[in-house]
């Protein structure tokens, strides 16, 4: 399965608890942090929920 790299480009400060939890579940800890995940439907859905805070680097 393909992998994607997810980079946090905006802060999670002043975001809802669900969005903060999604960022944490993706493994992102601070700005410009990049993590690599399998491109599963679950991960893609999480990325879509916080698309305004992250960037997908392929």
What does this structure look like?
The structure is a single chain. The chain starts with a strand and ends with a strand. The chain has helices at residues 17-25, 41-49, and strands at 3-8, 34-38, 54-57. The chain has a three-stranded antiparallel beta sheet with strand order 2-1-3, with no helix packed on it. It has a single domain, classed as Ribosomal Protein L30, Chain: A (2-Layer Sandwich). The protein has two helices and three strands; from the N terminus they run βαβαβ. The radius of gyration is 10 Å and the shape is globular. The longest helix is centred in the middle third of the chain and has 9 residues, at 17-25. The protein is an alpha+beta fold and 58 residues long. Helix content is 31%, strand content 26%.
What's this, in brief?
This protein is an alpha+beta fold and 58 residues long. 31% of the residues lie in helices and 26% in strands. It has two helices and three strands.
Q: Keyphrases for this structure?
A:
58 residues, alpha+beta, Ribosomal Protein L30, Chain: A, globular
Summarize the helices and strands and which ones pair or pack.
Blueprint: E1 3-8, H1 17-25, E2 34-38, H2 41-49, E3 54-57
Antiparallel strand pairs: 1-2, 1-3
Q: Could you give the distance between the termini? A: 13 Å
Strand content: 25-35%
Quickly name the level 1 CATH class. Alpha Beta
CATH-derived topology: Ribosomal Protein L30, Chain: A
